[in-house]
Design a protein that fits this description.
alpha+beta, five-stranded antiparallel beta sheet, four-stranded antiparallel beta sheet, 22 strands
Length: about 425
């Protein structure tokens, strides 16, 4: 490729040679280091290519080897300029083209963000626009070191950032903190653990609090499972005070859940007719142009568009976007669902429900999905027997704790009053 460009800019000639000693001619060219290539041998002549500067050195070789050479064609940049020497507007257009490229190379026409996962591209692009950095900004106005410092300060999740300009492209590479933030433990308030659904307790391990039920008991929603009020008794078993804690336990409950999903009996089918329309779109800055084959207004079309930014080479981007457009005509009609489609929907409903439960730590032991007819359509009703973690905290109100303290005080003061009367 490099050699072809060198030949083009230096210019080269197509030579047809005839004579009786072609071998001597080629040997003399090699001896004088004259470069010839693309040699083609015929019955009476030989064709080859030689560069324009080497053609002057080939004349003594032709005379010495008693050969005859004829120029069949002239190619390359020097001859192109010579043929178009009178076309001043063309020359001005070429100069203007390169001047325009030189001017555009001083601006940023593409922003690329790499290795970001949590902070989205839109968020960073919006932040850059607030910093007056983006498409069409002069490269000399972008301070990469200051930009790196600002991003680290304004985005705590980004622990490392690199900003650099390559060609007319701004490349920002970031590294985000993948470790979760340390949570500061808060003082837990006194609370009970209550059942959040009806079911049967299958397993129960209490870490803090006083258990109110045991494995095998049937509980209802809202029932206290572990109390946060722990009585403190004396040697006789009488309650002398209360200790209030935040109840904590691992409780597993066997419960039955019913989930329904309404579906239409008829489904809409989109069918392609086979008609295709193609077009192109060009956008340059605020200007845009779209050319496409006309369509029938009474028909439905779905359109696919693929847009690419024009690049000359490497990281040299231009503020021009070219789109290829493809539209396909389709029709919509309705039909009842088939038996196999209902079976597929039933299986999908059961699998999606199990996946949703699995994300919450719920294990499905048994499931049963039925299809029921309704006025609006059909209803998928699923009965799921699940084994899941149970228990949610319910804060102990201060009034409740005060009432328990007052009841305890009355119980402890009544014996003292009886003792006083005996005296």
């Amino acid at each position: 490729m490099r050699q072809s460009l060198t030949h083009f800019f230096r210019g080269y000639l197509w030579i047809r040679m005839s004579g009786c000693a072609p071998e001597r001619f080629f040997n003399l060219c090699r001896f004088h280091r004259i470069e010839i290539w693309d040699i083609r041998c015929g019955d009476q002549c030989h064709d080859f290519l030689v560069s324009f500067p080497d053609y002057r050195g080939i004349r003594p070789v032709v005379r010495k080897s008693r050969m005859h050479c004829k120029i069949m064609g002239k190619y390359g940049f020097p001859f192109f300029l010579y043929r178009n020497r009178k076309r001043k507007l063309f020359a001005a257009g070429v100069v203007l083209f390169f001047l325009t490229l030189g001017c555009m190379s001083r601006f940023i026409w593409d922003v690329t963000i790499l290795d970001n996962r949590f902070v989205t591209d839109d968020t960073l692009l919006y932040y850059l626009s607030d910093q007056n950095i983006g498409y069409g900004v002069k490269k000399k106005l972008v301070d990469c070191e200051q930009l790196e410092e600002n991003i680290r300060l304004d985005f705590p999740d980004i622990i490392w950032v690199s900003a650099r300009i390559s060609g007319n492209r701004l490349i920002i590479q970031v590294k985000e903190n993948s470790l979760p933030e340390e949570t500061i433990p808060q003082e837990e308030e006194a609370a009970d653990l209550i059942a959040d659904c009806d079911g049967v307790i299958t397993e129960m391990i209490v870490r803090q609090g006083k258990a109110q039920v045991k494995a095998g008991d049937t509980v209802t929603e809202g029932q206290i499972l572990v109390s946060g009020a722990i009585p403190i008794t004396d040697d006789l078993g009488e309650t002398v005070s209360w200790q209030y804690v935040c109840a904590d336990a691992d409780i597993t409950i066997l419960t039955v859940r019913e989930i329904t999903k309404t579906m239409q009996k008829l489904i809409s089918i989109r069918s392609n007719t086979g008609k295709i329309r193609r077009g192109i779109g060009i956008k340059a800055g605020p200007l845009s142009f779209v050319w496409m084959i006309p369509k029938n207004e009474d028909s439905l079309w779905k359109t696919f568009r693929e847009t690419r930014q024009v690049t000359l080479f490497g990281d040299f981007y231009l503020p021009i976007w070219v789109s290829t457009i493809r539209s396909e005509e389709y029709q919509i009609y309705e039909r009842p669902r088939t038996k196999s489609e209902w079976e597929t929907e039933t299986l999908r409903f059961a699998q999606e429900t199990q996946q949703n439960f699995a994300q919450k730590g719920v294990v499905i032991i048994q499931n049963d999905v039925k299809i029921l007819d309704s006025q609006t359509g059909c209803e998928l009703r699923g009965t799921f027997v699940s084994e899941e973690p149970a228990g949610k905290r319910q804060r102990l109100e201060p009034s409740q704790m005060d009432r328990e303290r007052s009841e305890l005080t009355e119980e402890t003061t009544q014996p003292d009053e009886r003792n006083g009367n005996n005296h």
